[in-house]
Predict the 3D structure of the following.
Amino acid sequence: MTMRIDVLTLFPAMFQGPMTESMLWKARDRQLLDLRLHDIRDFTTDKHRTADDIPYGGGGGMIMKPEPVVAAIEYALQDAPPRTPVILMTPQGRVFSHAIAKELAEQPHLILLCGRYEGIDDRVRQLLVTDEISIGDYVLTGGELPAMVIIDALVRHIPGVLGAEGAADRDSHADGILEAPHYTRPPEFRGLSVPAVLTEGHGAKLAQWRREQGLRRTWERRPDLLLKADLTEDERYLLGRFADEDARRLSSAK
Ligand code: 4G0
């Protein structure tokens, strides 16, 4: 099944590089992804192709005019199944995550709306936008980079895009625990060795090591993730050990 994504933007050329490289290209080449770029300026009707205007009430900056944006959305919606998500990229949206990537990858068709300037006339949102997504708490000059981030993250969940080796269910964040460190050849590099467990070929021991390393990294770097992670009894025991180690270090450092 092909997933269709229509991107509405004033800067379609920004997508040329990222969308024609590596995995995204492979997805398009294999017809798993039908990505269509639309220039919102093509939906203007005046001779200057005006897409923005000054805000009512002042305050500076420019706001995208509603008419061309609405015309572009309605064009993309023409042959879309009912309830096709129309997603506005905005710092005011729900914060993007692995879970949202998986949820969006199940849709046959998505419409991504990239705003520029200080935003878009709010009536577009009121009339046609069904979802608002942010890629994090910072402001960018436009929604194009966020749209590319979302396309990249969700294409990895379309069956057939990743080989079995790179199954998206094993990613960092798939189960709320970070991944263990990775190594490749040579076995020693600038005095640093590859951990023996990776070269010994003891499958069960390796799995246990990876789980412990991932859990340790999560404990050290992203303890917030552990609140939501669903952990086995063994994993909870390991967390207890990490806490003990921390406590011991603290009391010996006094
Ligand atoms: C709409 C998304 C678009 C509204 C877009 C800005 C960051 C993100 C834009 C605004 C963006 C993000 C209200 C400033 C374009 N910047 N974090 N800029 N406002 O996902």
About this structure: Residues 28 and 44 are 29 Å apart (CA to CA). The radius of gyration is 23 Å. The chain has two domains: 3-155, 188-253.
